[in-house]
Amino acid sequence: MRLNSIGKKIIRVDGLSKVKGKALYPQDIYMEGMLYGKTLRSSRPHAYINIDTSRAEKIDGVVKVFTYKDVPGKNCHGVLFKDHEVFCSERVRRVGDPIAFVVATNKKAVEEAIEVIDVNYEDIEAVFDPLEAMKEESVKIHGNSNIIYHYKLRKGDVEEAFKRCHVIVESEYKTPMVEHAFLQPEAGIAYTEDDGTIVVCASTQYPHFDQIEVAEALEVNKDKVKIINPAVGGAFGGREDITLQIHLAIAAKVTGRPVKAVYSREESFLAHSKRHSMIMRYKTGCNKDGKLLAMEAEIIGDTGAYASWAINVLRKAGVHATGPYEIPNVKVDSYAVYTNNPFAGAMRGFGATQVPIAHEQQMDMLSEKLNMDPVTFRLKNIFKKGSKTATGQVLEESVPIDRCIKEVADRIGITPLSERGGVV
Amino acid sequence: MKKIKLTVNKKEYMLEIKEDTRLIDLLRDVLGFTGVKEGCGEGECGACTVIMDGDIVNSCLVLAFQADGKEIITIEGVESEEEIHPIQQAFLDVGAVQCGFCTPGMILSAKALLDKNPSPTREEIRAAISGNLCRCTGYNKIVDAIERAALYLKRGK
Amino acid sequence: MGIREVYKGRNIDEVLELLDKYRNDCRIIAGGTDLVVHLRHKRLNPKVLVDISDIEELHGIKKEGEFIEIKGATTFTEIVKSNLVNKQLIGLKEAAKSVGSPQIRNRGTIGGNICNGSPAADIVPPLLALDSTVLLKSKNKEREISLEELFLDKGKVNLKENELLYSVKFKKINKNQVLSFSKLGLRKALAISRLCISVFLELDKSKECKRVKIADGALGKHGVRERKVEEFLLGKRLNEETIEEGAIILQEEISHRLQGRLSLPFKKEAVKGVFKSAISKALENLH
């Protein structure tokens, strides 16, 4: 078989336009007669709101101030649950929730108008600690419970297996939320074509989802919405949820003119998701030869005010909770929990990134307690070809973890005791 | 309004600007040099880097009236009519470009370095691009590309 | 931004005239690396801006008798490149080199770093350790005060509304003297000092401290001279024991000064390492 690309050095198709500075990101698109838009965002984490836009509407140059009343169709969106509002109608659930969108003929008018929109906040008790949020008596962010997902993984009998363990370590780990900080802040421009089709040009990871969500908010057929995805300045998961697409589409439809918005870095931080912060409680045990026998983990992921991909992320955290190790008895419970924190969603690794902090620390502590070097300890327990994971998946293809660990150990100058003829 | 005169990519402009216009806004919104990118507006990311009188500056931190009488080079002024600049070629060949948003600023920082120091060490390259953030590459390929560019430039001579 | 007038200053008299005319409505802009950010966040609202970045007379480092004079609009890059900022003055060079990024150093100025009154201004501790003075000029007057006297509070300097920081002066440094600098930032580039320390040192023939001046940044409302530590070290030999004791005195000083601050436990621990590093850099460069 002749391969044209694989194994060959290929220069990326958009490389030339990027080194020349000609690649068009949405902020680089200027249209004749375009208007400028800017979002007013909540400054409170949890509050009932009342909005008065009358002063803003009177500012010279302001064309319209959009709020929830101006959403023609469904005032909601979300990748799994439709728990985001396009514009908050009664209540804000986090700092940064969109409340209004000012559209004006120039940037200055937009800035001025944003400052004179009156939002009356009536604060509600807020919850920022996911452990508190899980309690029955906690204030609820949406619906009747803040626990939106509970993933259970059961294999063997951990209780019985722990009794047989020579060494057991137990610890709690916390990882923080993380911002993607892709270099190109969100930007977009929307306009209508002659046949009424709404075109939204924005850097996004899901043009096909965006099309559906824009269509539903506009209450038009999907084929009346076109999403154009120009150059994307990094995403890392942070562009999987809607940010400005629907705002722009509504504004373009109502005003009949092109509308452009460019987020500042600060607004970018407020607008998109974060990596889930997690609390991970681990108990791991092995026999005196260093063979892992049992692991029990409870993982709580803070998804903030909105679900986004929380279910998938916490499922993935649960599935990967053992790390690349064969453990015959496993019990994992992972939870996704609403709070009033910034919402969490997709970010590189998607739940698989947090758990190694915990399972690898457990491995180090076990080997220390056993007085065994950590490389040897790991090599004893890692997945190999034919291994069965805790979820029952048989690894039939290439599983070169041993090579990887040995290579790393070698490069950082650690020789496993077992290979030095030392006591294991 | 304030009258200023400046040279951008070898072309002279006489302009009337608003007093509070930043150099980046002038270059992008008025003159159409959209290769100048805004990533943070605070001089942290370096995406807005341009060369002003031979030195790199953050165009988001220079007010346009301050650039009166200056000579500016943006990414659009790096290539010649016939071909792209050896630094641009090296970025392509090495695969130092991913999302591309930092690329114009990186190339200009590299150019300012190589114009003064044709054979930099890797440490010197890292120092020269320390004001430019990249979120995709992890920088190694960018350093490789600038090393490669130094070779291309020498060969070309 | 409600800026109504902007002037690109061509000479010093013109600038002083404008300052005298517009007073509090007016701000000086040089590198703009802080000012433009403040304007963007509306933390400052001047009506008039006067740019001094291209005034020849306000740039440069030169010898003036037994002094070295650095003009107010001299950039960090110019300081790093200057031949006068030699091996003995390594601390001044390193401080200038540690500011921001190449882009920021190409624009940011010594005068701006001082007049912003930021507690974390990197260039301030070395200048304090050099016992620098500042020359302040206004339309019909000029006055020279010690740099230390210039700082009033966090972000507040003793500069009249019509005054311009014209230059900074300090005594030339002898072959048997050295100035060092050590900084703790959260990353290599673009790091705002968590804390920084500069040490001026001269040893006598028996290796005892003949002159020692210590100043730090980000450990108070502005750059501070650490006189108690200086007094302790004066006349002593610098060895593990005395350096450790000096570090403990410094810890006590900052514990007192930063009482109630959340950063205190961290800074109290970190200051020891930075202090020791500054002292050992001084000793290394003395020989």
Automatic annotation (TrEMBL), chain A:
Domain Aldehyde oxidase/xanthine dehydrogenase a/b hammerhead: 20-125
Pfam family for this entry, one: MoCoBD_1
Classification via InterPro entries: Ald_Oxase/Xan_DH_a/b, Ald_Oxase/Xan_DH_a/b_sf, Ald_Oxase/xanthine_DH-like, AldOxase/xan_DH_MoCoBD1, AldOxase/xan_DH_Mopterin-bd_sf
Protein name: Aldehyde oxidase
Alphabetized SUPFAM superfamilies for the sequence: CO dehydrogenase molybdoprotein N-domain-like, Molybdenum cofactor-binding domain
Residue spans crossing the bilayer: none
GO molecular function: iron ion binding; oxidoreductase activity
Top-level taxon of the source organism: Bacteria
SMART domains: Ald_Xan_dh_C
TrEMBL record, chain B:
Coiled coil: none
Keyword Metal-binding annotated: yes
Pathway: Alkaloid degradation; nicotine degradation
Domain 2Fe-2S ferredoxin-type: residue ranges: 2-78
Keyword ATP-binding on entry: no
PROSITE patterns per UniProt: 2FE2S_FER_1 (PS00197), 2FE2S_FER_2 (PS51085)
Keywords, alphabetical: 2Fe-2S, Iron, Iron-sulfur, Metal-binding, Oxidoreductase
InterPro entries hit by this protein: 2Fe-2S-bd, 2Fe-2S-bd_dom_sf, 2Fe-2S_ferredoxin-like_sf, 2Fe-2S_ferredoxin-type, 2Fe2S_fd_BS, Beta-grasp_dom_sf, Diverse_Oxidoreductases
Pfam family, one: Fer2_2
GO molecular function, one term: metal ion binding
Protein name: (2Fe-2S)-binding protein
Automatic annotation (TrEMBL), chain C:
Domain FAD-binding PCMH-type intervals: 1-175
Pfam families: CO_deh_flav_C, FAD_binding_5
Protein's name according to its UniProt entry: Xanthine dehydrogenase
UniProt cross-references to InterPro entries, sorted A to Z: CO_DH_flav_C, CO_DH_flav_C_dom_sf, Diverse_Substr_Oxidored, FAD-bd_PCMH, FAD-bd_PCMH-like_sf, FAD-bd_PCMH_sub1, FAD-bd_PCMH_sub2, Mopterin_DH_FAD-bd
Keyword Methyltransferase: no
Organism of this sequence: Thermohalobacter berrensis
Keyword Oxidoreductase: yes
Keyword entries, A-Z: Flavoprotein, Oxidoreductase
Gene Ontology MF term list: FAD binding; oxidoreductase activity
Domain of life per record: Bacteria
